[in-house]
Each structure stands twice: as C-alpha cells, then as structure tokens.
Amino acid sequence: MRIQVVGVVGAGVMGIGLAQNLAQNGHQVILVDISEEILERANAQIKKNIRFQGFFNKNEKVENSENCLHKIKFSTNYKFLEKAEFVIENATEKWDIKKGIYAQLDAICPKKTIFAANTSAISITRIASVTKCADKVIGMHFMNPVPMKPIVEMIRGYHTSDETISTAQELLSQMGKEGILVNDSPGFVSNRVLMLTINEAIFLLQDKVASVEEVDRIFKTCFGHKMGPLETADLIGLDTILFSIEVLYESFNDSKYRPCPMLKKMVDAGLHGRKTGQGFYAYSEAI
C-alpha cells in the first residue's frame, strides 16, 4: 500500500532534502520546525534546489518548484502531524531535544504511525524507549544531499517489528531508494567509521602533519574517494560532526572517540561548513 502523507520534523539541510525528495515522488509532506523564519528559508531553499536540479539534469524530467511546493505544508504546529502515516525526525543530535520531540509525536500521532529517526549516532532503542510504540520506531540514516543519494542506512532497534521494517523499505522504494538494514549500536556502521576518520583528519591538521588540501587529495587520489574527509565534514556540518562524536564518546567511554580540540574551536567560532559558508573551505554562500 502506498504511503500518502509523510511528516518531516526539522527543516535543516536534511529535512529540506527529505521534503523535496518526498514531494517530487508524489507524497504529501508536512514539514515542521520551531519558527516561521526557518520554514521560510526552507521554502526558498527547496525552490533553489529544484532549479539547480533541473539545470544539471536537463535530460531528466524534474518537477517544477510550484508543483513540488504545493505538496508541502510548512508549519510550526505539531498537531498537523496527526494526519501523517509516517514521520521522519531530523532534529539536532542532542538527546534532550529528541526526547522532547518524540514525547510530542507519541501524544499526537495515531497508533499506526511509524516514527523514523534520521540520526547520525543516537541509539534507536533509546529513542523508542520514550514512546508507547517501540515496535514502530526505526532508524533511517539518510545521506546528504538526500535527493541524490540512492542508499539509506536502516537501523533495527531492539523492539522494531518486521512490519515496520517492511513499511520503511516500501517508503524508500517509493522515493527511489534502497535501504541497507543493520542492527542498533551508537553510530551504526557509517558514522562509527566516518566520524573517527574525520576526527583523526582534524587531528592531522592540528598537529600540522598536512594541510586541508593535502589530506583530502590523498584520500581522493589514493583511494578513489569522490570527496576527502574534510570536504565531507564541511558538507555534513562541523556542528553535526561534533555532536555525533560526542555521542560516540559518551556511549562507548572509549578515548578513541575523544573530539579533537580544533573541531570544538571551529564549532564555537561558527565555522560549521557549507551551511555557514565557512568550514575547512570557504564557500560563496551559506546553505
């Protein structure tokens, strides 16, 4: 059965990409965030993304921004999510924030609604524990930029049911994506490896072993990576990198996950990467 209405919580980079991707594949989307200002920026960014998508994919049919935005309801009111069959949450990687969101979702959404946490590192089992429907909570770690990435890391929590997994896979299929299912552990597969790599690359800068360009060039030329670890950090967002590595450090109590002091300083300075226009590289405009 096709899922018709999908809620998206959080209108940051990931939420914007998800809302766009879902609307372009025919879903009705309810995009929720805490302020009208954030939602207005999201609206403008989706228009911009679709224009660029049409420019770079001239041989493909790309739905125009008016048709796409017509399928998205922008709101600061969680109550509209009572109509959602499936909700994807994309809030900041802070436990206190996520815990509060799921308490609201649990109170508003029908019992049949599936909750998907688009998290980089926080345990899906822990998230499910604050709801009354732990069997309907699953992890869906989308990659950035969402419309262009065909693979999603799916995470089975302790109580996640087979029916929930099947429905989530069906939604991904409707979005033109495929899920790879893994078991629950902080950081899962992708970020348990990637965050360590990025953090260590930043230590290399701090220790003056190599420059930003040299670190990235080695990974791109020697290993065939499309982007180096520091370019990847800028794309993800240095604040998200720091939040994720802190979750891993707290979860495993292992010193190998100790955040690099240089990373902390850059985040404190507001150098968050592409989203702010400056990270390890400078960008013409913030996203």
Automatic annotation (TrEMBL):
**GO BP, one annotated term:** fatty acid metabolic process
SUPFAM superfamilies per UniProt? 6-phosphogluconate dehydrogenase C-terminal domain-like, NAD(P)-binding Rossmann-fold domains
Please state every residue range assigned to the domain named 3-hydroxyacyl-CoA dehydrogenase NAD binding.
6-184
Q: State a single Pfam family of this protein.
A: 3HCDH
List, for all copies, the residue spans of the domain called 3-hydroxyacyl-CoA dehydrogenase C-terminal.
Answer: 187-283
Name the residues that bind NAD(+). 10-15, 33, 93, 98, 120, 144, 275
**What terms describe the molecular function in GO for this protein?**
NAD+ binding; oxidoreductase activity, acting on the CH-OH group of donors, NAD or NADP as acceptor
Biological pathway:
Lipid metabolism; butanoate metabolism
Where is the site Important for catalytic activity? 141
Show the Gene3D superfamilies listed in the entry.
Answer: N-(1-d-carboxylethyl)-l-norvaline Dehydrogenase, domain 2, NAD(P)-binding Rossmann-like Domain
Per its UniProt entry, which superkingdom is the organism in?
Answer: Bacteria
The similarity comment for this entry is: Belongs to the 3-hydroxyacyl-CoA dehydrogenase family.
- Output the PANTHER family linked to this UniProt entry: 3-HYDROXYACYL-COA DEHYDROGENASE FAMILY PROTEIN, 3-HYDROXYBUTYRYL-COA DEHYDROGENASE
Q: What is this protein called?
A: 3-hydroxybutyryl-CoA dehydrogenase
Organism of provenance? Gloeocapsopsis dulcis AAB1 = 1H9
